[in-house]
Design a protein that fits this description.
Elements: E1 3-9, H1 16-23, E2 32-37, E3 42-45, H2 48-51, E4 60-67, E5 78-80, E6 83-91, H3 100-121, E7 124-132, E8 135-140, E9 149-152, E10 156-160, H4 163-167, E11 175-176, E12 181-185, E13 190-194, H5 208-227, E14 232-236, H6 241-252, E15 256-264, H7 268-280, E16 284-289, H8 291-305, H9 310-328, E17 333-335, H10 340-344, H11 348-371, H12 373-387, E18 391-393, H13 399-406, H14 424-433, H15 437-440, H16 447-450, H17 453-463, H18 468-482
Parallel strand pairs: 14-15, 14-17, 15-16, 17-18
Antiparallel strand pairs: 1-4, 1-10, 2-3, 2-4, 5-6, 6-7, 7-8, 8-12, 9-10, 9-11, 12-13
Helix pairs in contact: 5-14, 6-14, 8-9, 8-17, 9-12, 17-18
Length: 486
Protein backbone atom coordinates (compact mmCIF):
# COMPACT_ATOMS: atom_id res chain seq x y z
CA UNK A 1 0.00 0.00 0.00
CA UNK A 2 1.22 3.47 -0.84
CA UNK A 3 0.12 7.05 -0.38
CA UNK A 4 -0.08 9.93 -2.82
CA UNK A 5 0.07 13.71 -2.91
CA UNK A 6 -0.59 16.35 -5.56
CA UNK A 7 0.05 20.09 -5.42
CA UNK A 8 -0.53 23.10 -7.64
CA UNK A 9 1.40 26.27 -6.85
CA UNK A 10 -1.08 29.07 -7.51
CA UNK A 11 1.66 31.62 -8.18
CA UNK A 12 3.16 29.52 -10.95
CA UNK A 13 6.35 28.88 -8.98
CA UNK A 14 8.22 25.60 -8.72
CA UNK A 15 6.34 23.22 -6.38
CA UNK A 16 9.08 20.61 -5.92
CA UNK A 17 9.94 21.56 -2.35
CA UNK A 18 6.25 21.74 -1.41
CA UNK A 19 5.63 18.27 -2.82
CA UNK A 20 8.60 16.77 -0.97
CA UNK A 21 7.48 18.46 2.26
CA UNK A 22 4.06 16.86 1.82
CA UNK A 23 5.56 13.44 1.12
CA UNK A 24 7.69 13.65 4.25
CA UNK A 25 4.55 13.76 6.41
CA UNK A 26 3.06 10.50 5.15
CA UNK A 27 3.14 7.66 7.70
CA UNK A 28 4.55 4.17 7.31
CA UNK A 29 6.01 1.42 9.46
CA UNK A 30 8.01 0.05 6.53
CA UNK A 31 11.12 1.12 4.69
CA UNK A 32 9.83 3.31 1.91
CA UNK A 33 10.82 4.71 -1.43
CA UNK A 34 9.54 8.00 -2.80
CA UNK A 35 8.80 9.46 -6.20
CA UNK A 36 7.77 12.85 -7.52
CA UNK A 37 6.75 13.84 -11.02
CA UNK A 38 5.86 16.89 -13.06
CA UNK A 39 4.04 16.58 -16.40
CA UNK A 40 7.49 16.20 -17.99
CA UNK A 41 9.86 14.55 -15.49
CA UNK A 42 9.87 11.86 -12.81
CA UNK A 43 12.39 11.07 -10.09
CA UNK A 44 12.49 8.24 -7.56
CA UNK A 45 14.69 7.99 -4.46
CA UNK A 46 15.04 5.77 -1.41
CA UNK A 47 15.04 8.75 0.94
CA UNK A 48 13.23 12.04 1.34
CA UNK A 49 16.54 13.82 1.85
CA UNK A 50 17.64 12.81 -1.65
CA UNK A 51 14.46 14.25 -3.13
CA UNK A 52 15.06 17.55 -1.33
CA UNK A 53 18.05 18.16 -3.58
CA UNK A 54 15.93 18.12 -6.74
CA UNK A 55 14.09 20.78 -8.69
CA UNK A 56 11.55 19.76 -11.33
CA UNK A 57 10.81 23.33 -12.43
CA UNK A 58 7.05 22.90 -12.46
CA UNK A 59 4.21 24.43 -10.49
CA UNK A 60 2.34 21.12 -10.75
CA UNK A 61 3.80 18.11 -8.94
CA UNK A 62 2.44 14.73 -7.87
CA UNK A 63 4.20 12.37 -5.47
CA UNK A 64 4.07 8.81 -4.19
CA UNK A 65 5.29 6.96 -1.11
CA UNK A 66 5.48 3.21 -1.47
CA UNK A 67 7.10 0.22 0.28
CA UNK A 68 10.60 -0.09 -1.14
CA UNK A 69 10.37 -3.88 -1.41
CA UNK A 70 7.35 -3.85 -3.70
CA UNK A 71 8.69 -4.15 -7.23
CA UNK A 72 5.28 -3.62 -8.83
CA UNK A 73 4.88 -0.22 -7.22
CA UNK A 74 8.11 1.10 -8.74
CA UNK A 75 6.36 1.74 -12.04
CA UNK A 76 4.59 4.74 -10.53
CA UNK A 77 4.25 7.58 -11.26
CA UNK A 78 3.44 6.55 -14.81
CA UNK A 79 4.98 8.96 -17.32
CA UNK A 80 3.03 9.82 -20.45
CA UNK A 81 3.43 12.45 -23.14
CA UNK A 82 3.35 15.69 -21.14
CA UNK A 83 1.55 14.09 -18.20
CA UNK A 84 2.16 11.82 -15.19
CA UNK A 85 -0.30 9.72 -13.20
CA UNK A 86 -0.45 7.94 -9.83
CA UNK A 87 -3.09 5.31 -9.10
CA UNK A 88 -3.43 4.10 -5.52
CA UNK A 89 -5.73 1.23 -4.63
CA UNK A 90 -7.23 -1.82 -6.31
CA UNK A 91 -9.79 -2.70 -8.95
CA UNK A 92 -11.67 -5.93 -8.30
CA UNK A 93 -12.17 -8.47 -11.06
CA UNK A 94 -12.59 -12.22 -10.77
CA UNK A 95 -11.33 -13.13 -14.24
CA UNK A 96 -8.84 -10.50 -15.41
CA UNK A 97 -6.13 -8.18 -14.15
CA UNK A 98 -6.60 -4.42 -14.17
CA UNK A 99 -3.75 -2.56 -15.87
CA UNK A 100 -3.09 1.05 -14.99
CA UNK A 101 -1.34 2.10 -18.19
CA UNK A 102 -4.36 2.01 -20.57
CA UNK A 103 -6.39 4.08 -18.10
CA UNK A 104 -3.52 6.56 -17.75
CA UNK A 105 -3.34 6.99 -21.52
CA UNK A 106 -7.10 7.45 -21.76
CA UNK A 107 -7.02 9.97 -18.93
CA UNK A 108 -4.31 11.99 -20.65
CA UNK A 109 -6.12 11.97 -23.98
CA UNK A 110 -9.66 12.65 -22.75
CA UNK A 111 -9.12 14.39 -19.42
CA UNK A 112 -12.08 14.89 -17.14
CA UNK A 113 -14.45 12.84 -19.31
CA UNK A 114 -12.18 9.79 -19.02
CA UNK A 115 -12.04 10.29 -15.26
CA UNK A 116 -15.83 10.51 -15.08
CA UNK A 117 -16.25 7.38 -17.18
CA UNK A 118 -13.79 5.43 -15.02
CA UNK A 119 -15.40 6.40 -11.71
CA UNK A 120 -18.85 5.64 -13.10
CA UNK A 121 -18.08 2.22 -14.57
CA UNK A 122 -15.23 0.68 -12.59
CA UNK A 123 -15.65 -1.02 -9.22
CA UNK A 124 -12.83 -0.89 -6.69
CA UNK A 125 -11.14 0.98 -3.85
CA UNK A 126 -8.92 3.67 -5.31
CA UNK A 127 -7.77 7.26 -5.70
CA UNK A 128 -5.87 8.71 -8.64
CA UNK A 129 -4.21 11.95 -9.69
CA UNK A 130 -2.99 13.06 -13.12
CA UNK A 131 -0.55 15.96 -13.48
CA UNK A 132 -0.78 17.75 -16.82
CA UNK A 133 0.43 21.21 -17.89
CA UNK A 134 -2.95 22.81 -17.16
CA UNK A 135 -3.41 21.31 -13.67
CA UNK A 136 -4.41 18.14 -11.85
CA UNK A 137 -7.28 15.73 -12.48
CA UNK A 138 -8.25 13.57 -9.50
CA UNK A 139 -10.85 10.95 -8.63
CA UNK A 140 -11.96 8.67 -5.82
CA UNK A 141 -13.94 5.43 -5.63
CA UNK A 142 -17.69 5.61 -5.09
CA UNK A 143 -17.67 4.32 -1.49
CA UNK A 144 -14.53 6.05 -0.22
CA UNK A 145 -12.49 3.09 1.00
CA UNK A 146 -9.24 4.62 -0.27
CA UNK A 147 -8.50 7.82 1.72
CA UNK A 148 -8.10 11.14 -0.08
CA UNK A 149 -8.17 14.68 1.31
CA UNK A 150 -7.95 18.11 -0.24
CA UNK A 151 -7.52 21.73 0.73
CA UNK A 152 -6.08 25.03 -0.39
CA UNK A 153 -4.67 28.30 0.87
CA UNK A 154 -3.36 31.43 -0.83
CA UNK A 155 -0.29 29.64 -2.14
CA UNK A 156 -1.36 26.07 -2.94
CA UNK A 157 -4.17 23.73 -3.89
CA UNK A 158 -3.36 20.19 -2.85
CA UNK A 159 -4.55 16.61 -2.37
CA UNK A 160 -3.12 13.83 -0.22
CA UNK A 161 -3.82 10.41 1.27
CA UNK A 162 -3.36 11.88 4.76
CA UNK A 163 -4.33 15.22 6.27
CA UNK A 164 -0.83 15.64 7.75
CA UNK A 165 0.59 16.20 4.29
CA UNK A 166 -1.72 19.19 3.85
CA UNK A 167 -1.03 20.53 7.34
CA UNK A 168 2.68 20.28 6.59
CA UNK A 169 2.45 22.99 3.92
CA UNK A 170 0.18 25.35 5.83
CA UNK A 171 -3.21 24.09 4.68
CA UNK A 172 -4.89 23.95 8.07
CA UNK A 173 -8.43 23.27 6.92
CA UNK A 174 -8.75 20.03 4.98
CA UNK A 175 -11.72 18.08 3.67
CA UNK A 176 -12.44 14.50 2.69
CA UNK A 177 -12.55 14.24 -1.09
CA UNK A 178 -16.16 13.10 -1.63
CA UNK A 179 -16.48 9.53 -2.92
CA UNK A 180 -17.66 9.05 -6.47
CA UNK A 181 -16.41 12.49 -7.51
CA UNK A 182 -13.75 13.82 -9.85
CA UNK A 183 -11.93 17.13 -9.54
CA UNK A 184 -10.06 19.46 -11.83
CA UNK A 185 -7.50 21.59 -9.99
CA UNK A 186 -5.58 24.50 -11.48
CA UNK A 187 -4.13 27.83 -10.33
CA UNK A 188 -7.57 29.46 -10.25
CA UNK A 189 -10.09 26.84 -9.16
CA UNK A 190 -10.75 23.57 -7.36
CA UNK A 191 -13.76 22.11 -9.19
CA UNK A 192 -15.41 18.99 -7.74
CA UNK A 193 -18.06 17.16 -9.75
CA UNK A 194 -20.29 14.26 -8.63
CA UNK A 195 -20.26 11.18 -10.85
CA UNK A 196 -21.45 8.13 -8.93
CA UNK A 197 -23.36 8.81 -5.73
CA UNK A 198 -26.30 7.28 -3.87
CA UNK A 199 -29.72 8.91 -4.15
CA UNK A 200 -32.38 8.72 -1.45
CA UNK A 201 -35.66 7.14 -2.55
CA UNK A 202 -38.55 5.16 -1.19
CA UNK A 203 -38.11 1.54 -0.08
CA UNK A 204 -38.26 -1.29 -2.58
CA UNK A 205 -40.94 -3.88 -1.88
CA UNK A 206 -39.19 -7.17 -1.28
CA UNK A 207 -39.70 -10.12 1.06
CA UNK A 208 -37.19 -11.21 3.67
CA UNK A 209 -36.37 -14.42 1.82
CA UNK A 210 -35.86 -12.58 -1.49
CA UNK A 211 -33.71 -9.92 0.17
CA UNK A 212 -31.58 -12.55 1.91
CA UNK A 213 -31.00 -14.44 -1.35
CA UNK A 214 -30.00 -11.26 -3.15
CA UNK A 215 -27.75 -10.15 -0.29
CA UNK A 216 -26.04 -13.53 -0.16
CA UNK A 217 -25.35 -13.35 -3.90
CA UNK A 218 -23.88 -9.86 -3.58
CA UNK A 219 -21.72 -10.87 -0.60
CA UNK A 220 -20.42 -13.99 -2.27
CA UNK A 221 -19.47 -11.96 -5.33
CA UNK A 222 -17.81 -9.26 -3.25
CA UNK A 223 -15.76 -11.72 -1.19
CA UNK A 224 -14.79 -13.64 -4.33
CA UNK A 225 -13.51 -10.45 -5.94
CA UNK A 226 -11.47 -9.57 -2.85
CA UNK A 227 -9.78 -12.96 -2.47
CA UNK A 228 -9.43 -13.93 -6.15
CA UNK A 229 -5.83 -12.69 -6.31
CA UNK A 230 -4.85 -14.20 -2.96
CA UNK A 231 -3.63 -17.59 -1.82
CA UNK A 232 -4.09 -16.58 1.83
CA UNK A 233 -5.86 -13.81 3.69
CA UNK A 234 -6.24 -12.61 7.25
CA UNK A 235 -9.67 -11.80 8.69
CA UNK A 236 -10.11 -9.34 11.55
CA UNK A 237 -12.27 -11.58 13.73
CA UNK A 238 -14.51 -10.84 16.67
CA UNK A 239 -16.47 -14.06 16.53
CA UNK A 240 -19.61 -12.08 15.75
CA UNK A 241 -22.01 -12.02 12.81
CA UNK A 242 -20.16 -9.81 10.29
CA UNK A 243 -16.66 -11.25 10.49
CA UNK A 244 -17.96 -14.83 10.68
CA UNK A 245 -19.98 -14.51 7.46
CA UNK A 246 -16.99 -13.06 5.63
CA UNK A 247 -14.62 -15.71 6.97
CA UNK A 248 -16.96 -18.56 6.03
CA UNK A 249 -17.57 -17.29 2.49
CA UNK A 250 -13.83 -16.69 1.98
CA UNK A 251 -13.13 -20.25 3.15
CA UNK A 252 -15.62 -21.60 0.60
CA UNK A 253 -13.73 -19.69 -2.11
CA UNK A 254 -10.76 -21.96 -1.42
CA UNK A 255 -8.63 -19.18 0.01
CA UNK A 256 -6.49 -20.04 3.04
CA UNK A 257 -8.11 -18.02 5.84
CA UNK A 258 -6.35 -17.00 9.07
CA UNK A 259 -8.54 -15.43 11.75
CA UNK A 260 -6.97 -12.69 13.86
CA UNK A 261 -8.52 -11.78 17.19
CA UNK A 262 -7.16 -8.96 19.35
CA UNK A 263 -8.28 -7.68 22.72
CA UNK A 264 -7.22 -6.67 26.19
CA UNK A 265 -6.79 -9.58 28.58
CA UNK A 266 -9.70 -11.21 30.41
CA UNK A 267 -12.48 -10.21 28.01
CA UNK A 268 -15.43 -12.57 27.48
CA UNK A 269 -15.43 -11.94 23.74
CA UNK A 270 -12.12 -13.77 23.37
CA UNK A 271 -13.68 -17.05 24.48
CA UNK A 272 -16.57 -16.44 22.08
CA UNK A 273 -14.07 -15.88 19.25
CA UNK A 274 -12.31 -19.17 20.07
CA UNK A 275 -15.61 -21.08 19.98
CA UNK A 276 -16.63 -19.40 16.71
CA UNK A 277 -13.28 -20.30 15.13
CA UNK A 278 -13.79 -23.93 16.17
CA UNK A 279 -17.26 -23.89 14.64
CA UNK A 280 -15.90 -22.47 11.37
CA UNK A 281 -12.99 -24.92 11.48
CA UNK A 282 -10.54 -22.10 10.84
CA UNK A 283 -7.19 -21.34 12.51
CA UNK A 284 -7.14 -18.33 14.80
CA UNK A 285 -4.35 -16.14 16.11
CA UNK A 286 -5.18 -14.49 19.42
CA UNK A 287 -3.14 -11.55 20.65
CA UNK A 288 -3.98 -10.09 24.05
CA UNK A 289 -2.77 -6.82 25.53
CA UNK A 290 -2.53 -5.30 28.98
CA UNK A 291 -4.26 -2.07 29.98
CA UNK A 292 -0.90 -0.29 30.23
CA UNK A 293 -0.28 -1.13 26.54
CA UNK A 294 -3.19 1.09 25.53
CA UNK A 295 -1.32 4.33 26.22
CA UNK A 296 1.58 3.31 23.98
CA UNK A 297 -0.73 2.40 21.11
CA UNK A 298 -2.97 5.38 21.73
CA UNK A 299 -0.28 7.77 20.58
CA UNK A 300 0.33 5.78 17.39
CA UNK A 301 -3.36 5.59 16.58
CA UNK A 302 -4.01 9.30 17.16
CA UNK A 303 -1.17 10.07 14.76
CA UNK A 304 -2.77 7.89 12.08
CA UNK A 305 -6.43 8.75 12.68
CA UNK A 306 -5.50 12.47 12.66
CA UNK A 307 -8.22 13.52 15.10
CA UNK A 308 -8.96 13.16 18.81
CA UNK A 309 -12.49 11.80 18.53
CA UNK A 310 -13.17 9.20 21.29
CA UNK A 311 -15.10 6.73 19.13
CA UNK A 312 -12.59 6.92 16.27
CA UNK A 313 -9.75 6.30 18.71
CA UNK A 314 -11.42 3.50 20.65
CA UNK A 315 -12.13 1.59 17.44
CA UNK A 316 -8.81 2.53 15.88
CA UNK A 317 -6.74 0.83 18.60
CA UNK A 318 -8.09 -2.71 17.98
CA UNK A 319 -7.80 -2.14 14.22
CA UNK A 320 -4.15 -1.16 14.75
CA UNK A 321 -3.55 -4.33 16.80
CA UNK A 322 -5.12 -6.53 14.12
CA UNK A 323 -3.21 -4.89 11.26
CA UNK A 324 0.06 -5.11 13.19
CA UNK A 325 -0.51 -8.79 13.89
CA UNK A 326 -1.38 -9.46 10.24
CA UNK A 327 1.79 -7.69 9.10
CA UNK A 328 4.01 -9.47 11.60
CA UNK A 329 2.75 -12.87 10.42
CA UNK A 330 3.31 -12.04 6.77
CA UNK A 331 -0.17 -11.21 5.50
CA UNK A 332 -0.46 -8.54 2.82
CA UNK A 333 -4.27 -8.31 2.88
CA UNK A 334 -6.91 -8.42 5.59
CA UNK A 335 -10.68 -8.76 5.30
CA UNK A 336 -12.96 -7.05 7.81
CA UNK A 337 -16.67 -6.56 8.38
CA UNK A 338 -16.77 -2.76 8.43
CA UNK A 339 -19.88 -1.35 6.82
CA UNK A 340 -22.37 -4.01 7.85
CA UNK A 341 -23.75 -1.99 10.78
CA UNK A 342 -24.46 1.08 8.64
CA UNK A 343 -25.91 -0.92 5.77
CA UNK A 344 -28.17 -3.17 7.81
CA UNK A 345 -28.97 -1.28 11.02
CA UNK A 346 -26.53 -2.72 13.52
CA UNK A 347 -26.42 0.15 15.99
CA UNK A 348 -28.81 0.51 18.93
CA UNK A 349 -29.46 4.15 18.05
CA UNK A 350 -31.43 3.05 14.98
CA UNK A 351 -33.96 1.28 17.18
CA UNK A 352 -34.29 4.42 19.30
CA UNK A 353 -34.86 6.53 16.17
CA UNK A 354 -37.42 4.01 14.93
CA UNK A 355 -39.43 3.96 18.15
CA UNK A 356 -39.31 7.74 18.57
CA UNK A 357 -39.68 9.00 15.02
CA UNK A 358 -41.03 6.19 12.93
CA UNK A 359 -39.88 4.44 9.77
CA UNK A 360 -39.12 7.46 7.61
CA UNK A 361 -36.90 9.05 10.24
CA UNK A 362 -34.80 5.93 10.69
CA UNK A 363 -34.59 5.34 6.91
CA UNK A 364 -33.09 8.79 6.46
CA UNK A 365 -30.69 8.19 9.33
CA UNK A 366 -29.61 4.86 7.87
CA UNK A 367 -29.16 6.41 4.43
CA UNK A 368 -27.06 9.27 5.76
CA UNK A 369 -24.85 6.86 7.69
CA UNK A 370 -24.29 4.78 4.54
CA UNK A 371 -23.32 7.90 2.59
CA UNK A 372 -21.02 9.11 5.38
CA UNK A 373 -19.41 5.76 6.17
CA UNK A 374 -16.16 6.81 4.55
CA UNK A 375 -15.73 9.59 7.11
CA UNK A 376 -16.90 7.61 10.12
CA UNK A 377 -15.12 4.31 9.51
CA UNK A 378 -13.35 3.58 6.25
CA UNK A 379 -10.73 6.32 6.15
CA UNK A 380 -9.64 5.58 9.70
CA UNK A 381 -9.21 1.86 9.15
CA UNK A 382 -7.58 2.15 5.73
CA UNK A 383 -4.96 4.61 7.00
CA UNK A 384 -4.13 2.37 9.95
CA UNK A 385 -3.77 -0.74 7.78
CA UNK A 386 -1.82 1.10 5.10
CA UNK A 387 0.69 2.18 7.76
CA UNK A 388 1.45 -1.51 8.28
CA UNK A 389 1.53 -2.23 4.54
CA UNK A 390 -1.58 -4.39 4.94
CA UNK A 391 -4.26 -3.89 2.32
CA UNK A 392 -7.67 -3.62 3.94
CA UNK A 393 -10.37 -5.28 1.83
CA UNK A 394 -13.96 -4.71 2.90
CA UNK A 395 -16.60 -6.97 1.30
CA UNK A 396 -19.51 -4.96 2.73
CA UNK A 397 -18.15 -1.61 1.50
CA UNK A 398 -19.18 -1.74 -2.14
CA UNK A 399 -21.39 0.62 -4.11
CA UNK A 400 -23.57 -2.27 -5.25
CA UNK A 401 -24.22 -3.40 -1.67
CA UNK A 402 -24.75 0.18 -0.49
CA UNK A 403 -27.34 0.75 -3.21
CA UNK A 404 -29.09 -2.51 -2.35
CA UNK A 405 -29.12 -1.79 1.39
CA UNK A 406 -30.34 1.80 0.98
CA UNK A 407 -33.42 0.55 -0.87
CA UNK A 408 -34.41 -2.09 1.69
CA UNK A 409 -37.49 -1.59 3.88
CA UNK A 410 -36.59 -0.76 7.46
CA UNK A 411 -38.40 -3.82 8.82
CA UNK A 412 -35.90 -6.08 7.08
CA UNK A 413 -33.13 -4.48 9.12
CA UNK A 414 -34.58 -3.66 12.53
CA UNK A 415 -37.81 -3.59 14.52
CA UNK A 416 -38.88 -0.80 16.91
CA UNK A 417 -39.09 -3.04 19.99
CA UNK A 418 -36.51 -2.36 22.67
CA UNK A 419 -33.70 -4.94 22.89
CA UNK A 420 -34.83 -6.58 19.64
CA UNK A 421 -32.40 -8.13 17.18
CA UNK A 422 -30.87 -5.87 14.53
CA UNK A 423 -29.39 -6.58 11.07
CA UNK A 424 -32.27 -8.98 10.51
CA UNK A 425 -31.66 -9.68 6.82
CA UNK A 426 -27.97 -10.29 7.43
CA UNK A 427 -28.85 -12.77 10.17
CA UNK A 428 -31.06 -14.56 7.67
CA UNK A 429 -28.09 -14.80 5.31
CA UNK A 430 -25.98 -16.21 8.15
CA UNK A 431 -28.62 -18.87 8.72
CA UNK A 432 -28.76 -19.66 5.00
CA UNK A 433 -24.98 -20.11 4.65
CA UNK A 434 -24.89 -22.48 7.61
CA UNK A 435 -23.74 -20.45 10.59
CA UNK A 436 -25.10 -21.78 13.92
CA UNK A 437 -27.49 -19.74 16.05
CA UNK A 438 -24.72 -18.96 18.52
CA UNK A 439 -23.24 -16.76 15.79
CA UNK A 440 -26.23 -15.84 13.61
CA UNK A 441 -28.23 -14.60 16.60
CA UNK A 442 -25.38 -13.20 18.64
CA UNK A 443 -26.23 -9.64 19.80
CA UNK A 444 -24.24 -6.77 18.35
CA UNK A 445 -21.52 -5.46 20.66
CA UNK A 446 -19.24 -2.60 19.64
CA UNK A 447 -15.54 -3.46 19.39
CA UNK A 448 -14.46 -0.70 21.78
CA UNK A 449 -16.47 -2.38 24.53
CA UNK A 450 -15.81 -6.05 23.78
CA UNK A 451 -12.03 -5.47 23.67
CA UNK A 452 -12.01 -3.41 26.88
CA UNK A 453 -10.44 -0.37 25.19
CA UNK A 454 -13.29 1.97 26.11
CA UNK A 455 -12.95 1.13 29.80
CA UNK A 456 -9.15 1.44 29.71
CA UNK A 457 -9.30 4.93 28.22
CA UNK A 458 -11.89 5.99 30.79
CA UNK A 459 -9.53 4.90 33.56
CA UNK A 460 -6.67 6.90 32.06
CA UNK A 461 -8.79 10.01 31.73
CA UNK A 462 -10.16 9.62 35.25
CA UNK A 463 -6.64 9.47 36.71
CA UNK A 464 -6.04 12.89 35.15
CA UNK A 465 -9.40 14.21 36.35
CA UNK A 466 -10.70 14.97 32.85
CA UNK A 467 -13.16 13.54 30.35
CA UNK A 468 -12.02 11.02 27.74
CA UNK A 469 -12.45 13.65 25.02
CA UNK A 470 -10.27 16.16 26.89
CA UNK A 471 -7.67 13.48 27.64
CA UNK A 472 -7.48 12.50 23.98
CA UNK A 473 -7.27 16.09 22.79
CA UNK A 474 -4.41 16.85 25.19
CA UNK A 475 -2.59 13.70 24.07
CA UNK A 476 -3.21 14.54 20.42
CA UNK A 477 -1.86 18.07 20.83
CA UNK A 478 1.23 16.80 22.64
CA UNK A 479 2.00 14.24 19.93
CA UNK A 480 2.01 16.82 17.19
CA UNK A 481 4.00 19.28 19.30
CA UNK A 482 6.66 16.70 20.19
CA UNK A 483 6.89 15.29 16.66
CA UNK A 484 6.44 18.44 14.57
CA UNK A 485 5.86 18.08 10.87
CA UNK A 486 8.48 19.64 8.68
Amino acid sequence: MGALIAVVNKKGEDATNTAVTMLSALSSATTDAFAIASPLRVKSERSIDSLRQLRLDSNIIIGYRYPADLQSERQQPIMLKRAAMIFEGRIYYTNKIFKIEPFAIDLQEHGKEAARSFVNKIFGDYAFVLAEPAGVIAGRDAVGVCPLYYGENEGFAALASERKALWNVGIGKSYSFPPGHVAVVDRENFRLEPVKILSYSGPKQITMSEAARKLETLLRRSVAQRVSSLKEVAVAFSGGLDSSIIALIAKKKRCSVQLIHVSLEHQKETEDAKKAAETLKLPIQIRLFKEEDVLEYLQKVLWLVEEADPVQTEIGIPIYWAAEQAAETGFKAMLAGQGADELFGGYRRYVDDYSLGGEERVRKKLFNDIVEIYKNNLERDSKICSFHNVELRLPFATFELAKFAAALPVNLKISPEKDSMRKLVLRKVAENVGLPEAISKKPKKAVQYTTGVNKALKKMAKRQGVSVRTFLQKTFNRIFEEAPLK
